[in-house]
Amino acid sequence: MAKTCAVAMPSDLNEDIRKLIYEEPPPEVKLPMYHSKFSKKVREDAKKVKNCHKTFGYAEVPLEPPTNFLKKKTRIVHRPLVDKQKYPQEAKPGLPPKPKSGRTKEEEREQKNFRKDNIVRVVRAVPKQPVPQVIDTRTGHAQKLETSGLQPKYIYRKGYGKVPSYLRQRYQPTYQEEQEAKEEERKKKPPLKYVTEEEREEMLIGLKKNWELLQKEFQLLPMVTDTVPKIKRKTQLEKRLKELEKDIDLIERNPVIYVACDNDRDSPRDSLKCS
């Protein structure tokens, strides 16, 4: 026979002598059932005998016989009393008598050819043109072309791009006053200004210095001008050098120089007056 051995668990080792005596569990205490305080009154009301007309009316509504139907002018309608006061009105003059043509209505109807008039009206009528529209979405949303802003409408007006007449009338006196003020300033200023010897020498030194800088830049250009930018650069430098040489020669040949005070000249060389 195979032998079995019992293993004692740690929880079984905690033996308590108080657990050896069996004790009955305490009785379960139940709460009292809820009873409404109106339950007695409800039972008494249910036992009472009520009249059948106090709550829901007749059990079956009696119908009137078919001979007693609603007849005309049998219902009495009480309308509110309205005191109508009639004010005296002046009699209006009658209309002038209609001139008699001496023909009856049938004769006038026969004289007018309605069929011919309708044909002429239809022939002369202008057919109704469809309103031009533009579709601006792939779902088919349409809007009028005239109000969409896609049709050039305002550029074909007579006054498009022109100053309005009311603005010209408003600013015309101001413009004239400005021109008159400029003319007065021109008259006050001397027409010519004398260039002193010191200013002439300073001008010559500055022109020669600029010529030297341009000449140095011109000499640094490549020997072969095979591209368009190189050709343009060389042409510009040659032109500027010739202008500086002309200005230097003009100042050296003329010891007395007068400069015009007018600023509306095309170039500074036009304002020089030598003697």
Polypeptide structure, described:
Helices cover 38% and strands 6% of the residues. Residues 264-268 have low confidence and may be disordered. The longest helix has 26 residues, at 228-253. The N and C termini lie far apart (155 Å). The protein has 275 residues and is mainly alpha-helical. It has helices at residues 39-47, 105-111, 114-124, 145-148, 165-188, 197-219, 228-253, and strands at 133-135, 142-144, 192-195, 257-260, 272-274. Strands 3-4-5 form a three-stranded antiparallel sheet.
Task: Give the SSE map.
Blueprint: H1 39-47, H2 105-111, H3 114-124, E1 133-135, E2 142-144, H4 145-148, H5 165-188, E3 192-195, H6 197-219, H7 228-253, E4 257-260, E5 272-274
Antiparallel strand pairs: 1-2, 3-4, 4-5
Helix pairs in contact: 6-7
